[in-house]
Amino acid sequence: MKRDSSTPVELFDAAITGHRHAIGRLLSLVEQGGASADAVSALTHEKSGAAMVIGITGPPGSGKSSLLSQLLKEVVAAGFRPAVIAVDPSSPLTGGAILGDRVRIDATDTATFIRSIATRGHSGGLALAVPGAVRVLDAVGFNPIIIETVGVGQVEVDVTASADTTIVVANPGTGDAVQANKAGLLEVADIFVVNKSDLPGSDDARRDLELMLDLSHMTGQEDSTGRRPPIIMANSLEGSGAAELWAAVVEHGEHLVATNQLSARRAKRQLAELRSRVSDALMDALDSELASKHGADIVVALSDRRITPTEASSQIISRVIRTDERPARPRGPQV
Predict the structure, then answer these.
(1) What pTM was computed for the model?
(2) Using CA atoms, how far apart are residues 24 and 133, in angstroms rounded to an integer?
(3) Can you give the residue ranges of every domain in the chain?
(4) CATH number corresponding to 49-258
């Protein structure tokens, strides 16, 4: 196989035979976006959907990567072929991913495929890159696919929406449980892990999570099936808790199938990606229109107060969303 000039079809044909360079090239095309990413999506869409997708998130320093390395051992021992997408923070200068955590994960099992995707400071690109990467890994035979994120912010909440099962990791004595609740992760968590459970405060961290789950139950914000997320006590340095965590993941997957929630979650996920794609296309069209002479004229008219912001936006929208059959009704003086 030619290493640099191969078409997406050639890359995919090589990838399904296990060619790691081809898999990496497909993922690079997905991350870059554009026509090549669309071609990869067309190749992988119908062939994906079999793999379970697991999200694991939590604040920096909570030991997610060490925990993940222990979890991967359990997954491989159970006969699965896992892949990991590590959503990393990125350099404000280069936009490159920080791969220190990835090195630790790589050491666990050479058969596990690891790929990092940089946030580059925003979640917009991730909304398309992560589902696309999941499809590639799913289509070439990896299962489960684990998405690891850093932090407890909006990016992490958005990315965990790509998962069938979401694991939230907290540290004892750091208030991580409270931060996770504030970020909205409590609502999306299917499994909680109190990592470094040998440290002081681990029982308090578990108690905090129990209280928050009790509150969710009292306010009617719990899972519609009444399932209560389990809390796993783990010490990733010793390997304790990894077997219990994998058992909880398997149990949750079975629960999703038994309650018909798996198909509902995936449909919701497809809708979220569709919204992101439409939004992305509209923003590109908006940028092009604002960069045109007509768009510049509208901005000048707005600055001169000859038209209102509502009138300006209406005129821009009528040009961005072209509806020849039903032209938009003009609002205000036309520029």
Answers:
(1) 0.82
(2) 10
(3) 1-47, 49-258
(4) 3.40.50.300
pLDDT of residue 225: 73
Per-residue 3-state assignment (H helix, E strand, C coil) for the chain: CCCCCCCHHHHHHHHCCCCHHHHHHHHHHHHHCCHHHHHHHHHHCCCCCCCCEEEEEECCCCCHHHHHHHHHHHHHHCCCECEEEEEECECCCCCCECCHHHHHHHCCCCCCEEEEEECCCCCCCHHHHHHHHHHHHHHCCCECEEEEECECCHHHHHHHCCCCEEEEEECCCCCHHHHHHHHCHHHHCCEEEECCCCCCCHHHHHHHHHHHHHHHHHCCCCCCCCCCCCEEECECCCCECHHHHHHHHHHHHHHHHHCCHHHHHHHHHHHHHHHHHHHHHHHHHHHHHHHCHHHHHHHHHHHCCCCCHHHHHHHHHHHHCCCCCCCCCCCCCCC
* Residue-level pLDDT at 200: 77
Looking at residue 279, its amino acid is: S
- Distance from C-alpha of 235 to C-alpha of 241, rounded to nearest angstrom: 6
The C-alpha angle 219, 224, 228, rounded to 5 degrees, equals 75
Q: Which residue bears the tokens 């495929």?
A: 113
Task: Give me the amino acid identity at 206.
Answer: R
Residue ranges of the chain whose pLDDT lies below 70: 1-5, 88-110, 119-127, 151-160, 173-185, 216-224, 323-335
What is the amino acid identity at position 242? A
Q: What is the pLDDT of residue 198?
A: 77
Whole-number pLDDT of residue 333? 56
- Around Cβ 16, how many Cβ atoms within 10 Å? 16
